[in-house]
Here is the input.
Amino acid sequence: MKNALHRMNPSVKFLAITICMFTMAFFFDPWTPLVFWAGVLVLQFFFSEINWKRWLLFMLPFFVTSFGYFWTTLVFAEDSSGSVVWSIWNLQITETQLNHALSLSFRVLAFSSLSLLFALTTNPVTFILSLMQQLRLSPKIAYGVMVGYQFLPVLKDEFVQIGQAHRLRGAGGEKNTLQRLLGVRRILIPMLAGAVRKAERAAFAMEARGFTGERRSSYFRVISMGKLDIALVSLFLFLLVLSCTHIWWLG
Amino acid sequence: MLKSWKLKEIVLMSLFAVVFGIVYLLFLHVGNIWAGFIGPIAYEWIFGIWFIVSIICMYIIRKPGAAVVSETIAAAIEVLLGNAVGPRLILSGIVQGLGAEAVFAATRYKRFDLWVLMLAGVGSSIFSFVYGYFLGGFSVYSTGYVALMLGIRILSGAMIAGIGGKAVADGLLATGSLRGYAISRSKKGEARA
Here is the structure.
């Protein structure tokens, strides 16, 4: 049971998370995203085996972002009705503003932990295969994406090599940030040119081995859906309903 | 739609998506850090970089769907790279790609001048802003602030994605590696290295 989220069908997980996020976007009170965030953490705690240190590392930037949302909402909020609860300098912060600010920053946290739940429990290749088998993604695109994914380490090496080649010839080494940003073009073009050649070669090799891009009736790796998916989706939906109806049970 | 596509064009988009996926992630981290200090407006001025792959791919391949498919693949690759923003990116990729696609579709995939590419960047900006407005809850902000955000994003889309995208693709064309794609067929008659 501990690895239930890892075994869940990736497409189903993807759809469940998407539905949750779009529903949350309609709520502007602080409690809905807060309850939902807590629920996501509970789900992740009981049904996944992840490295929590890594989780925290990924979450840190989002805490910063959510703080940014918090104070900008306080300063730039449209609706400034309600009683004043707080005043700094000549800024009057009303209850509505505070609620909106808290809501948006909790929303950032809820969305990012939901996304992390997906990212940390899903195998990328299984996700693409599942998109192809369950959501009818074209095999041409699915395998095309996987080719790109396989080339990632090659392209990373190439990035380093091109940088080294430039340095060997005395190019690069700008101190100025703007110059360095413009210098990216010098690395980008050789990399893209290499990518074009690799793409041609890979596509040719695939076609030479009989890949037509047509849909198959059977697959070597079958990604299935089962009772587990139904159970977990109902858990997600239960959590969603719980957080959206908090008005009734929190009072 | 995909019937007329060659496999090499799809793999090309996928590899471009990997290259730009790395670039996108870099910018996302920069944006995230900035956002802590100056709020969601931090993403706006660099937003154009996220539209660049759809414009480059459409400029090179010139087939219906090149913008939206490439942007979606780029988003999917970003997710595969183990990105914390996760599946949400795929949806925003589709939305951004549709924005650029709409502009190219309006010209019936016949014109690929600089102004069309810039407009495509603007299209992506507007589509992605509407999406962000809904999901990010921008409606609580004052109208002036939202208008400022939209303005910066449109500018960024036109400059970085439109002008920058054309510059990268033209540079690539000059290397001669794009023989066999629509972009080099259309430039016949011009002297090219």
Notes: The beta strands of chain A are 84-88, 91-94.
